[in-house]
UniProtKB/TrEMBL annotation:
Role according to the record: Involved in the regulation of the intracellular balance of NAD and NADP, and is a key enzyme in the biosynthesis of NADP. Catalyzes specifically the phosphorylation on 2'-hydroxyl of the adenosine moiety of NAD to yield NADP.
Higher taxonomy: Bacteria, Bacillati, Bacillota, Bacilli, Bacillales
Any one of the GO CC terms: cytoplasm
Top EC category: transferase
Pfam families: NAD_kinase_C (PF20143)
The protein's name: NAD kinase
Active site (UniProt): 47 (proton acceptor)
Any single biological process term in GO: NAD+ metabolic process
Assigned keywords, A-Z: ATP-binding, Cytoplasm, Kinase, NAD, NADP, Nucleotide-binding, Transferase
């Protein structure tokens, strides 16, 4: 069966040129373009582009595998260079790749008067902040009251998102083979009256973390990867490691710790 693919572009000149080039090569090799039902999606741009692209295919995670080509700096998701296109398209046409699955985060928003929660998946993280004033909410782990948080916000990240916002918040970098989620604080208030744990928490896949607003009149700003939404009348927010997983097409070894070193330390070794 002919493989169906789709190439998504960041939209700038260089990424569009590379998109056209990849499409031409793959069509010449008898593959078929399908935006609706691709088996393989090639995202051309950066990690930001990759996030946008993946969200468009969250409804078919079991059927679609992803690969990222970067047109700026080395990315965590976009880790192929434009110079490697020919090698890549040949490997694609021969189906010479393995599938690596990484965990995703699941978030449910439970609102007053609504029986069904709103559900979201995140590849990097989900955060909660307040528009005005401090965020005040109870953090529960597996239904046990853990702490009352006061501060700027909280971030719950996936292992592959641990190198993104989570890292800027002082969270640990977590290998994506571990099915975990990590909760990090944004400027918590800690004094003689208010107390939070202060350290990032890494939870296993069978644990549930809940944020329960102390006051339901509060308006919150939620982010899910690149998306932002404001919500009110929130009864609770529930986070777990998702049952769904993202599938990466791996054409050559590129160990996670090498990507971490090359991105944050140096690639001159
Ligand atoms: P953006 O603000 O335009 O870009 C955020 C930066 O994060 C880009 O440089 C992007 O890389 C990089 N990035 C994305 N995912 C990454 C990952 N898994 N590991 C390492 N770096 C990663 O926003 P955007 O492009 O829409 O991306 C949304 C993401 O921005 C969020 O999911 C969040 O993780 C991140 N963010 C970070 C901070 C912070 O570090 N203080 C604050 C807000 C949001 P590329 O340049 O390759 O696209």
């Amino acid at each position: 069966m002919m493989m169906k693919f789709y190439v998504a572009s960041k939209g700038d000149h260089k990424s569009n040129m590379i998109k056209s080039m990849v499409e031409k090569y793959l069509l010449d090799l008898d593959l078929e373009i399908s935006q609706e039902a691709p088996e393989l999606v090639i995202s051309v741009g950066g990690d930001g582009t990759f996030l946008h692209t993946v969200h468009d295919y969250f409804h078919r995670l079991e059927e679609t595998a992803f690969i990222g080509l970067h047109t700026g700096h080395l990315g965590f998701y976009a880790d192929w260079l434009p110079e490697e296109i020919e090698k890549l398209v040949i490997a694609i046409s021969r189906r010479q790749f393995e599938i690596k699955e990484y965990p995703l985060l699941s978030m449910s928003i439970h609102k007053e008067g609504e029986t069904k929660p709103e559900k979201y998946l995140a590849l990097n993280e989900a955060t909660i902040k307040k528009i005005e004033g401090s965020l005040v909410l109870d953090v529960k782990i597996n239904d046990m009251h853990f702490e009352r948080f006061r501060g700027d916000g909280l971030c719950v990240s996936t292992p592959s998102g641990s190198t993104a916002y989570n890292k800027a918040l002082g969270g640990a970098i977590v290998h994506p083979s571990l099915s975990t989620m990590q909760v990090t604080e944004m400027s918590s208030i800690n004094n003689r009256v208010f107390r939070t744990i202060g350290s990032p928490l890494i939870l296993p896949s069978h644990h549930i973390c809940q944020f329960v607003p102390v006051n339901r009149d509060q308006k919150f700003v939620l982010t899910i990867d690149h998306m932002t939404k404001s919500v009110e009348n929130v009864v609770s927010l529930e986070y777990t490691v998702a049952k769904e997983r993202i599938r990466f097409a791996r054409f050559r070894p590129f160990p996670f710790w090498k990507r971490v070193r090359d991105s944050f330390i140096s690639d001159e070794y």
